[in-house]
Specification:
single chain, alpha+beta, four-stranded antiparallel beta sheet, 4 strands, elongated
Length: 138
């Protein structure tokens, strides 16, 4: 059976709460998608933005799980009032996913561990100096 991405999708929200303290609306999203494996987060946020008359960049969906047997998924959704409150309250990993923040450059695992173990041998302010890579001249 071929996946049909043009198949109709029904979106329902429940437990809808307006959270004034975090400047957002939060709810559980139920997605009915028969004849489809699942629905992308991008498409979901577009549809939710249309339903609630807001900008699709302010809609955050996460924790989506497809129910066994397929055809239905459940997850969590947030709609922030503005970008400033989204940057203030949203966790960094979700900001990176939505493109509002750039991921820090990764150093490889072995170098991080070597740096940590070099720093263990010192106390106080000398730890910062120990974290630097050793000099090749000596």
């Amino acid at each position: 059976m071929q996946a049909d991405n043009s198949a109709p999708v029904t979106i329902r929200t429940r437990k809808f709460i307006t959270n004034r303290l975090l400047a957002r609306r939060q709810f559980i999203v139920d997605v009915l998608h028969p004849n489809r494996p699942n629905v992308s987060k991008a498409e979901l946020s577009e549809r939710l933005a249309a339903i609630y008359k807001t900008d699709k960049e302010r809609v955050v969906t996460f924790g989506l799980r497809t129910i066994f047997g397929g055809g239905r998924s459940t997850g969590f959704g947030l709609i922030y009032d503005d970008e400033a409150s989204q940057k203030k309250f949203e966790p960094k990993h979700r900001l990176i996913r939505s493109g509002l923040m750039v991921a820090p450059p990764k150093t490889n695992r072995k170098l991080r561990k070597e740096r940590k173990n070099r720093a263990k041998k010192f106390r106080g302010t000398k730890k910062a100096k120990a974290a630097e890579p050793p000099k090749k001249g000596k």
